[in-house]
User: Which sequence fits this backbone?
């Protein structure tokens, strides 16, 4: 005997309420995720584009027990003034020197070797921050 299948009753085996709710949650999550990524992108762009002065520590050299030299490359707008903060660290990570260096030149790129006085022998020099004058 051959079994004959009948069509399923209408609405009985369709999508459940849970499946419809899952779909709405997935759509809501995707929209919120895209909005969050757009917000992070905007903050990143604003941070990078909003800086008037940026610098890069090219190299550093410990010259003596009380001095370290740092080669700094500063990029800024031609008419911007500001300063960068450097610090020297000892072997155990303690800070042994800190200084602010002003950059008032009317140039958009400045290469300078700076001397940082230390209280004891430094093993590293670190660029902390660069700040533009208001």
Assistant:
């Amino acid at each position: 005997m051959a079994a004959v299948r009948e069509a399923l009753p209408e609405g009985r085996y369709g999508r459940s309420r849970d499946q419809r709710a899952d779909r709405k949650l997935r759509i809501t999550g995707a929209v919120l995720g895209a909005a969050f990524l757009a917000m992070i992108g905007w903050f990143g762009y604003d941070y990078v584009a909003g800086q008037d002065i940026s610098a890069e520590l090219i190299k550093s050299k410990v010259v003596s027990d009380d001095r370290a030299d740092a080669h700094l490359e500063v990029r800024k707008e031609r008419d911007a003034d500001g300063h960068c903060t450097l610090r020297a660290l000892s072997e155990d990570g303690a800070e042994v020197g800190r200084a602010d260096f002003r950059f008032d030149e009317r140039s958009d790129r400045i290469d300078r070797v700076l001397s940082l006085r230390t209280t004891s022998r430094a093993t590293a020099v670190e660029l902390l921050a660069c700040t533009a004058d208001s």
In short: The beta strands are 53-64, 67-76, 82-89, 95-103, 109-117, 124-132. The mean pLDDT is 87.
